[in-house]
Backbone:
């Protein structure tokens, strides 16, 4: 099929290469010309496992190309995916401006029947809104169908999820659009749910809000574990053995981040308010998360009272391992608080994008974990990068001004820290007194 994907961000790029790999002709339209140039050269603009090889393969087979020419790309395609950003506004509502801009442009260039697919996460009712907007812009209703096809891709595992995900959700109105979407996704051989657009849109929000709630729940249990001397790993494992609960998404830490959970939880709350259906449970999940990500700062203040001019090392800046993405990363909230309190910050992350250096130019960034620790008074582990498990605790003991680790991702062992007389705090796996 001839496919156009608008937006070459995390979702648009993965969608583009995945459809290209399956033999479709894909044109990915991106307004940022630097991204277009880089992608056409086979250089990915984000880090994602397996993306580099797949991009090069598709470019060589000429099943994919990148451009900023929207008109040409739309005219050539049968299906247009919208995968532009839909960030949160300050009041929690979803900012739909990028989507509306796309629709304005698409309206100008629809010359024959096309399916317009909302891939970005958009509020319930958006399919209808987009349809009405196209008609208002003068597009005749026999020239298009609007379909909702939310993504369930985890960053870092996005290609795997695209090819082997648990489900594909298609919210459609006409039988024609259902048949075409079915043909497109059939080769993936994944259970596909065909439903109304509103149901599809809500599935996405409900999924992410439920998963966020699971994380906030286990984080509250973990906080109690530390107080009563229980072990969160065992609690979580035993809890997960119950098939009704499952072991997934029961890993405690300093909270969830990323481009979806924080945005979609407040998004669902805001949609609920509009319809007088308050989401009290989701509101609590959000407020637990807001507190959880600042636990390291609370611990530091309990320990030192005044932390001005102390040197603190942050290990990990991305919102989780396996990605270079810092959107809504707990580390950012910790950095804000520490800078307000006059702390000197050292930071090391194996993958983080350079964007963070522009946001926080006054942090000392290191390319090596050990160097970032030298002379520091506390390490805060913010991301679950595997290499942090191999931290040399003897080196920590010998080279820090004060050996103190706040392990926000439970990467290390309390016993190993105790043996070396290192002060240690975990999230529900105990701490030294
Ligand atoms: C997406 C969806 O927007 C979001 O709803 C979902 O929850 C997560 O995934 P993501 O792919 O991560 O977001 O967004 P981002 O990395 O911001 O990429 C969007 C891309 O679209 C950017 O490269 C931007 O330059 C591009 N864009 C935006 C266009 O090419 N044209 C536009 O008109 C607007
Ligand atoms: C998520 C969803 O999983 C995906 O289906 C959706 O469509 C996009 O949003 P992503 O944000 O890439 O994907 O990451 P995910 O692996 O789900 O983790 C989200 C956050 O939750 C991370 O900050 C992670 O550290 C945290 N998390 C996850 C926990 O704290 N504990 C867990 O047990 C699992």
Residues:
């Amino acid at each position: 099929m001839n496919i156009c994907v608008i937006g070459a961000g995390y979702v648009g790029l993965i969608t583009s290469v995945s459809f290209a790999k399956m033999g479709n002709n894909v044109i990915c339209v991106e307004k940022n010309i630097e991204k277009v140039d880089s992608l056409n050269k086979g250089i990915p603009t984000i880090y994602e496992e397996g993306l580099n090889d797949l991009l090069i393969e598709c470019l060589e087979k000429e099943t994919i190309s990148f451009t900023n020419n929207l008109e040409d790309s739309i005219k050539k395609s049968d299906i247009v995916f919208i995968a532009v950003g839909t960030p949160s506004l300050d009041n929690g509502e979803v900012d739909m401006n990028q989507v509306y801009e796309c629709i304005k442009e698409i309206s100008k260039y629809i010359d024959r029947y096309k399916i317009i697919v909302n891939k970005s996460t958009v509020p319930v009712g958006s399919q209808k809104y987009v349809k009405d907007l196209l008609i208002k812009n003068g597009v005749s209703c026999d020239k298009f169908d609007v379909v909702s096809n939310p993504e369930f891709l985890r960053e870092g595992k996005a290609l795997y999820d695209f090819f082997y995900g648990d489900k594909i959700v298609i919210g459609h109105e006409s039988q024609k659009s259902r048949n075409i979407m079915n043909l497109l996704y059939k080769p993936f051989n994944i259970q596909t749910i065909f439903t109304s657009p509103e149901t599809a849109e809500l599935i996405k929000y409900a999924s992410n809000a439920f998963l966020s709630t699971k994380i906030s729940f286990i984080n509250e249990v973990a906080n109690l574990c530390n107080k009563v001397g229980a072990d969160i790993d065992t609690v979580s494992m035993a809890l997960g053995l119950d098939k009704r609960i499952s072991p997934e998404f029961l890993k405690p830490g300093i909270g969830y981040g990323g481009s979806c959970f924080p945005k979609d939880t407040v998004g669902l709350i805001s949609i609920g308010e509009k319809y007088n259906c308050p989401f009290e449970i989701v509101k609590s999940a959000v407020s637990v998360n807001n507190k959880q990500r600042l636990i390291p700062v609370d611990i530091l203040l309990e320990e030192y009272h005044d932390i001005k001019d102390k040197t603190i090392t942050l290990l990990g800046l991305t919102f989780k391992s396996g990605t270079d993405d810092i959107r809504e990363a707990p580390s950012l909230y910790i950095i804000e608080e520490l800078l307000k309190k006059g702390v000197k910050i050292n930071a090391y992350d194996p993958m983080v994008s350079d964007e963070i250096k522009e946001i926080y130019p006054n942090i000392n960034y290191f390319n090596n974990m050990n160097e970032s620790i030298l002379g520091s008074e506390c390490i805060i582990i913010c991301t679950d990068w595997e290499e942090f498990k191999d931290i040399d605790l003897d080196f920590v003991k010998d080279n820090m001004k004060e050996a103190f680790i706040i392990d926000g991702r439970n990467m290390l062992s309390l016993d190993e820290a105790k043996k070396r007389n290192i002060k240690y705090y975990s999230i529900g796996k105990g701490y030294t007194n």
Remarks:
- Residues 151-155, 208, 215, 249-251, 253, 256-258, 260-261, 319-320 surround uridine-5'-diphosphate-xylopyranose (ligand 2) (CB under 6 Å).
- Residues 2-195 form a domain with the Rossmann fold fold (CATH 3.40.50.720).
- The mean pLDDT is 97.
- The longest helix spans residues 197-228.
